[in-house]
Amino acid sequence: MQNKIITTLFSFLLSVGTGFCADSAGSNHISVFEKYVSKAVTTDETARCLNCHASRQIKLVESWEKTKHAANQVGCFECHAAEPNDPAAVPGHFGFCVKLPVTPKTCGSCHTEQYASFASSSHALAFDRIKNNPIRQASPIVFETTCASCHGNETTLKRGKAVDESWPNHGIGRINTDGSRGNCAACHGFHEDSLERVRSSDTCVACHSNSFSPAVQAWKNSKHGASWQAYAKSADMNVKGFVSLNEPVMRPDCFVCHFAAAKEGHKSTHNPSERLSWELAALKATHTDNWGDKRLMMQETCRNCHASTQTEQFYRRLDALVVETNKIVEKLADNSTENAYKNNKIKSLAIKSRVGAAMMSPAHRVEAIEELLEQK
Ligand code: HEC
Ligand code: HEC
Ligand code: HEC
Ligand code: HEC
Ligand code: HEC
Ligand code: HEC
Ligand code: HEC
Ligand code: HEC
C-alpha cells in the first residue's frame, strides 16, 4: 500500500515530457525486490529503472554495464522511453511511459548516419516485399514462425500488449508501431554494442543460410571462408575504423565486403546493396540500377588484398556464369501456376549456382548446375 502511494506520487510529479505518462492500473504489479546497486553512472530516470530492474534482470543489466552505451549514460530510459500515443507504449509504468520494442527510430535519434543508410537498404524493405504472400493470409502463425522470423512482420500492439501472432518479432524488415521500418537489433542484439559481435559471420548465418540465400555456406566453402577460419581467432575484431588494412591478418568475411569502408578515408555502409551489380535472388538474375558504379565500389574492397587483374577476371567469369544460368532457367521455367513448386525449385537452384559463383564456392556451382540440367 505504501509503495502504491509513493509510486502514484512519483508519477504525478513526473508526468510531463516524453517518456512520462499518467499512471494507470499497470502499477499494481509492484513486488518487493532485493536491492542490487548498479555501479553505472546514469541519468536520474535510468537510475530509477535500475532500482527495480537491476535485481530482476541481473544478466541483462550486467551485459549492458559492459557497453559503450552504459559508459555514455545511454541507459534503460534512453532506449525504452515511449511516446504516449505509440501503441507499443505501456502507460503508467511507475510514472514512466515505456515500451519493449526498441526501433531504428530510437537508435537513429543518436546514430543518424547508420539509420539513414539502413533505411535505404533492402534489409529495411524485407517485409514489404513479401507482405502479400498468400501464406500470410492463410495462416498468420505459420507466416510469423517461418518467413517473418527473417523478413520481419507488421507488429500490432495495443497499450504494450500483443493482440495477435505478430509480436514478439525480430526480423530485419519489421514494421514498427512508431512508423519506422526495420530492426537494428536483428544484427546488433538487444543489449550489446560490440563491433566484434556484429562483424562476425555468425550474425548473418541465422538468415543467410536457406535455399533462397545460401550465402554463408557458399562463403564457408570458399578460399575466403577457409582463410577467415584460419586467422579469425588472432584478429582483434573490435579495431575501430578501416579494418581491412589495419589488421595484421587478411580476413575476408561478410562485413569486410558488404559493410566495411571500401578504402582508407571512406565510411562503412549499412546498405549492402550499394556494392551489388546483380540482383541474384530471382528466377532470372538482372543487373541492378547503376550497376557499374556499384561494382567499382566493391572492387575497391577487393583491391585492398588483390591485384586488379584477379578481381576483373573474377567479375568476367561471374557475369558469364550468371548469363549461362539465366539461359538454362529460361528453357526450364514454366510460368503456369500449377508449376509453382517446380519453379521454386528451379529458382533456388539458379540462386545456388549464382551465389556459389559470387561467393566462390566450387561445390555450390557444380551441385546446382548438375541438378538444373537434370530438371525437365
Ligand atoms: C518500481 C519498480 C520498477 C521501476 C521503477 C521500473 N520498472 Fe520496468 N518493470 C517492473 C516490473 C515488475 C516489470 C514486469 C517484469 C516482468 O514481466 O517480468 C517491468 C517491466 C518492464 C518492461 C517490459 C514491459 C512489458 O510489456 O513486458 C520494460 C520495457 C520496462 N519495465 C522498462 C522500464 C524502464 C525503462 C524503467 C525506467 C524508466 C522502468 N521499467 C522502471 C518494475 C519496474
Ligand atoms: C541501446 C538501447 C538499449 C538500452 C540502453 C537498453 N535496452 Fe533493453 N532492449 C533494447 C532492445 C533493442 C531490445 C529488444 C526489443 C525489441 O525487440 O525491439 C531490448 C529488450 C529489453 C527487454 C526484453 C528482453 C527479453 O529478452 O525479454 C528488457 C526487459 C529490457 N530490454 C530492459 C532493459 C533495461 C532494464 C535496461 C537498462 C539496464 C535496458 N533494457 C537498456 C535496447 C536497449
Ligand atoms: C541516446 C543516444 C543513443 C541511443 C538511443 C543509442 N545509442 Fe548507440 N551509442 C551512443 C553513444 C554515445 C555511443 C558511444 C560512441 C563512441 O564511443 O564512439 C554508442 C555506441 C554504439 C555502438 C558501438 C560503436 C563503436 O564504435 O564501438 C553501436 C554498435 C551502437 N551504439 C548501436 C546502437 C543501437 C543498435 C541502438 C538502438 C538499439 C543504439 N545504439 C541506441 C548513443 C546512443
Ligand atoms: C532463414 C531466413 C529466411 C526465411 C525463414 C525466409 N526467407 Fe526469404 N529470404 C531470406 C534472405 C536472406 C533473402 C535474400 C536473398 C538475397 O538477396 O540474396 C530472401 C529472399 C527472399 C525473396 C527474394 C527477394 C525478394 O525480396 O524478392 C523472396 C520473394 C522471399 N525471400 C520470400 C520468402 C517467403 C515467402 C518466406 C516464407 C515461406 C521466406 N522468404 C522465408 C531469408 C529468409
Ligand atoms: C534477421 C535476418 C537477417 C540478418 C541477420 C541479415 N540479413 Fe541480409 N537479408 C535478409 C533478408 C530477408 C534479405 C532480403 C531483402 C529483400 O530483398 O527483400 C537480405 C538481403 C541481403 C543482401 C542483398 C541485398 C540486395 O540488395 O539484394 C545482402 C548482400 C545481405 N543481406 C547481407 C547481409 C550480411 C553481410 C549480414 C550480416 C552482417 C546480413 N545480411 C544479416 C535478412 C537478414
Ligand atoms: C570477398 C568478398 C565477399 C565476401 C567475404 C562475402 N561476399 Fe557476399 N557477395 C560478394 C560479391 C562480389 C557478390 C556479388 C556482387 C554483385 O552482384 O556484383 C556477393 C553477393 C552476395 C549476396 C547476393 C545478393 C543478391 O544479389 O541477391 C548475398 C546475400 C551475400 N553476398 C551475402 C554474404 C554473406 C552473408 C557473407 C558472409 C557469409 C558474404 N556475402 C561474404 C562478395 C563477398
Ligand atoms: C545487417 C546487419 C546490421 C544491421 C541490421 C544494423 N547494423 Fe549496425 N553494423 C553492422 C556491421 C557489420 C557493423 C560494422 C561495420 C564496420 O566495422 O565497418 C555495424 C556498425 C555499426 C555502428 C558502429 C559505427 C559504424 O558505422 O561502423 C553503429 C553505431 C551501428 N552499426 C548502428 C546501427 C543502427 C542504429 C542500426 C539500425 C538503424 C544498425 N546499426 C543496423 C551491421 C548491422
Ligand atoms: C581482406 C582481404 C581480402 C579481400 C578484401 C578479398 N579477398 Fe579474395 N582472397 C583473399 C585471400 C586471403 C584468399 C586466399 C588466397 C590463398 O589461398 O592464399 C583470396 C582468394 C581469392 C580468389 C581465389 C579463389 C579460388 O578459389 O582460387 C579470388 C578469385 C578472389 N579472392 C577474389 C576476390 C574478390 C573478387 C574480392 C572482392 C569482391 C576479394 N577477393 C576480396 C583475401 C581477400
Report on this structure.
It is a single chain. The chain is mostly helical. The chain folds into 3 domains: 2-99, no CATH class; 107-188, no CATH class; 200-374, Up-down Bundle (Hydroxylamine Oxidoreductase, Chain A, domain 2), CATH 1.20.850. The protein is built from 21 helices and 6 strands. The protein has helices spanning 2-14, 44-56, 58-65, 68-71, 76-80, 104-108, 112-119, 134-138, 140-145, 147-151, 185-188, 195-199, 202-205, 215-220, 223-231, 243-246, 254-258, 291-303, 308-332, 340-358, 362-374; strands spanning 90-93, 96-98, 157-158, 161-162, 278-279, 286-287. A hairpin with a 2-residue loop joins strand 1 and strand 2 (96-98). The protein starts with a helix and ends with a helix. Mean pLDDT is 88; it is low at 1-18 and 23-31. One heme C (HEC) is lined by residues 122-123, 125-126, 129, 150-151, 171-172, 186-187, 203-204, 206-208, 254-255, 258, 272-273, 276, 279.
